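From the methods appendix. Each design record in this collection lists the tokenized structure first, followed by the designed amino acid sequence. Records were kept in a plain field format so they could be parsed without special tools. The example shown here is representative of the layout used throughout.

RECORD:
FOLD TOKENS (106 positions):
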């Protein structure tokens, strides 16, 4: 994968549990980076790195408000993940239906 594409890859961004937890936290609304950092057992610079990955994947946006930077969830890129998961949902539905039919016939 090209380096710039890897940086904006939604799947790569959500692969990390801390980044998923940040996204979950931002569902409640915009949050200052310091408030986010206080909710995790990681340093503020580590949280900032996670936020940078999320920003590059366009999953969050940041805006300066006074002396703080507020981050907000941008859920639209997650549509890529939903589309991928839906393919597997159809696969499992068909597979389980076929298994049920096979078990009931034997």
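DESIGN:
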């Amino acid at each position: 994968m090209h380096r710039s594409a890897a940086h904006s890859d939604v799947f790569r961004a959500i692969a990390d549990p801390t980044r998923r937890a940040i996204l979950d936290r931002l569902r409640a609304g915009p949050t200052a980076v310091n408030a986010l950092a206080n909710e995790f057992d990681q340093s503020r610079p580590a949280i900032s790195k996670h936020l940078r990955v999320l920003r590059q994947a366009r999953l969050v946006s940041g805006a300066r408000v006074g002396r703080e930077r507020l981050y907000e969830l941008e859920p639209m890129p997650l549509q890529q993940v939903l589309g991928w998961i839906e393919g597997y949902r159809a696969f499992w539905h068909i597979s389980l239906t076929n298994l049920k039919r096979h078990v009931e016939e034997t």
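APPENDIX NOTE: The chain has a mean pLDDT of 89.
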